[in-house]
Automatic annotation (TrEMBL):
Major localization listed first in the record, in broad terms: nucleus
Family per record: Belongs to the rad1 family.
GO cellular component terms attached to this protein's record: checkpoint clamp complex
InterPro entries hit by this protein: DNA_clamp_sf, Rad1_Rec1_Rad17
Subcellular location: Nucleus
Designated name of the protein: DNA repair exonuclease rad1
Amino acid sequence: MASSASPVPAPPLFRAVASSTRPLYQLLKSIGFTNKVHVDITDNGLRFMADHARVMQGVAHWNKNLFTSYTTNLPQPEEEDEEDESATPTFQISLPALLETLQIFGAVDAATRQAKADIDPYRSNLRNYRPDAFSNQTLGMSGTCSLSHSQEGAPFSIVLEEAGVKTTCNLITYIAEEPELIPFDVNDLSFKIITQARWLLDALAEIGPTGPEKLTIAASRKAPYLKLSSVGALGSSSVDFAKGRDLLETFAVRDARWVQSFKFDIIKSAMEAMRIASKVSMRGDRQGVLSMQFMVEVEGAGLSFLDFRFVPYAERDDDEEEEEEDDGDEREGEEL
């Protein structure tokens, strides 16, 4: 009597193992301004995109160098359409749930690590700009974190093992159409500035106490070169950047001046990225869209990047305002 062999399960679309979740958590937290993120699985890592009302988008990359092992079994595109990206697995996931899950790693043996921190004076809890946010001392946690996604529609599985305790979390995935990227023309830039991320963080921290609603960013060929200004409920504030190698490492302005205003709260949403990044590249195109790319140095894993795009307030021409006033006068005349 012949016995039928049990079918061999197909390998998962993606599986990775990390010895620490700290860099994964920090990178994701930087785009924590929305409840759900779109996830793309690629051969080079995971891409997370957060979108807020099509006026702000943030993209975080989990490069495969962040993991001790990283394997994929992605469907291959048709030969006649090798550039087709539809074969790339993509889904939505709850960002707060994912962040909370990653925080579990390291919490089991917290008492032991706290004792080590008391002995080691270099393990400080002081919160500063943290240029060593991903140092070995900060990442010194034993255990493993395994992530996998078996197939389309399946949960995103996270298995945390630490100090003899194993925790399994299966996060629901949602199939949804990924929103289009905010248009940004890299071939028609009006300005480009590279500076230390901490300088930008300092500027927003100084402006914040005035309770601003708008943040105006001006880049000019003449002094003050880069200026951030606002008018809030408690007063006005502005920060000028001098054109020098100590503050502006790269400075290029195509036109005489580039000025745009943004909602302060959406720019403020990038402050976590400013805290963990070493440098930021600020670019503005002719349409007024602002791009910020943050470079994050991860010890032992190279560089990771966070990308933000912001849509400015729509500018109103004087002619449009006059037309609206005329229309209003006509409506009042009709009522009379």
